[in-house]
Design the sequence.
């Protein structure tokens, strides 16, 4: 029962009762038209035959096959008992319509043949009586055909309407699933952006603050310079966060403060160098016009790789090489170091190496990470320039 039916049980009962009342009125009208019945052998037949033909019709919507079988059985008894044809015999056609309306053609076709056979039997044995002729026989057979055809068409239309309803419900469910998947993907994208921005900035701030703490007594000027860099890094992180939020809000602020691309790599490497990392940047090949999404992915890969170097490279780190290679078909970036510290395995929160891999594969690229043969760690990503825009 639906919520509407629960709130309005009386209206629901009336709506369900209306067809039954209509069927009862039809049966009552046909029954009344047969009274008084001429030619019956007694008062019992005068009552039982019309009642047997009309009364079951009230249940034809709920039990169409049972109603049809009952009416047909009464009609057969009517013929065997020699009862003349009645107006109530039209209930056979109405019962046939109910079967054709509710059941598939094997049932309805069989029911139509039975009714047609009864008509041939009932009228054929009475030709010449009561002004019955072959024309009447053909006309009654046409009535049987119309009843069957009308019920079949009504069933076909009802099935078509039901299929449309089911298709609409399926489409609605599909849209809901797609919206949920899109929302999940958007949450993942936002989580990756926040991780890249916050993780890199906090890592840089931590390294700068640690250096300032070591220099505060020995070289206050150097410590002050380090703290100023902490301030600048914090401001840059806030600006980048605002740019990302501006894109999410789709406001004009996003255009004024675009997300970082390849042209921001020198500044990124410079900030990493200020934290004490011995980073060098090498660009090979001529850069073609690249869409912003590809440039952002390359930038984030370098950013995350440098953040991991600062966290995990450990003692013995002497160089970090960032190499950007342009070719007509793809952009490749490599971040390699010679540190000896433990490295992330991509597990955990899923926003480190896993986040990099998700970014790269989303644009049809590949990401390879692992230890270098001579020591250290390497991150290598390739992204095709012709992937979907």
Sequence:
């Amino acid at each position: 029962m639906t919520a509407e039916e629960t709130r309005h049980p009386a209206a629901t009962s009336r709506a369900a009762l209306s067809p039954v009342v209509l069927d009862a009125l039809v049966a009552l009208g046909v029954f009344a038209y047969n009274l008084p019945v001429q030619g019956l052998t007694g008062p019992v037949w005068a009552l039982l035959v019309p009642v047997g033909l009309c009364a079951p019709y009230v249940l034809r919507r709920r039990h169409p096959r049972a109603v049809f079988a009952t009416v047909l059985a009464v009609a057969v008894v009517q013929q065997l008992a020699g009862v003349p044809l009645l107006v109530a015999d039209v209930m056979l056609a109405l019962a046939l319509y109910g079967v054709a309306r509710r059941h598939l053609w094997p049932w309805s076709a069989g029911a139509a043949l039975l009714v047609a056979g009864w008509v041939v039997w009932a009228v054929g044995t009475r030709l010449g009586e009561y002004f019955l002729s072959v024309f009447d026989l053909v006309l009654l057979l046409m009535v049987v055909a119309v009843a069957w055809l009308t019920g079949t068409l009504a069933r076909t239309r009802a099935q078509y309407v039901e299929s449309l309803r089911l298709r609409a419900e399926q489409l609605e469910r599909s849209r809901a699933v797609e919206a949920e998947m899109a929302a999940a993907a958007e949450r993942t994208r936002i989580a990756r952006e926040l991780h890249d921005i916050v993780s890199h900035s906090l890592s840089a701030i931590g390294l700068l603050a640690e250096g300032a703490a070591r220099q505060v007594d020995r070289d206050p000027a150097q410590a002050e310079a380090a703290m100023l860099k902490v301030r600048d890094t914090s401001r840059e992180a806030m600006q980048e966060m605002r740019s990302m939020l501006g894109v999410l809000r789709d406001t004009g602020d996003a255009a004024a403060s675009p997300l970082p691309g390849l042209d921001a790599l020198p500044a990124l490497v410079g900030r990493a160098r200020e934290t004490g990392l011995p980073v060098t940047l090498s660009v090979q090949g001529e850069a073609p016009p690249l869409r912003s999404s590809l440039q952002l992915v390359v930038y984030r890969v370098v950013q995350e790789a440098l953040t991991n170097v600062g966290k995990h490279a450990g003692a013995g780190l002497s160089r970090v090489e960032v190499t950007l290679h342009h070719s007509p078909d793809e952009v490749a970036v490599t971040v390699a170091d010679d540190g000896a510290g433990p490295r992330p395995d991509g597990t955990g929160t899923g926003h480190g190496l896993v986040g990099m891999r998700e970014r790269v594969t989303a644009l049809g690229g590949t990401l390879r990470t692992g230890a270098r043969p001579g020591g250290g760690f390497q991150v290598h990503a390739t992204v095709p320039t012709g992937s979907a825009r």
Observations:
- The first strand starts at residue 279 and ends at 284.
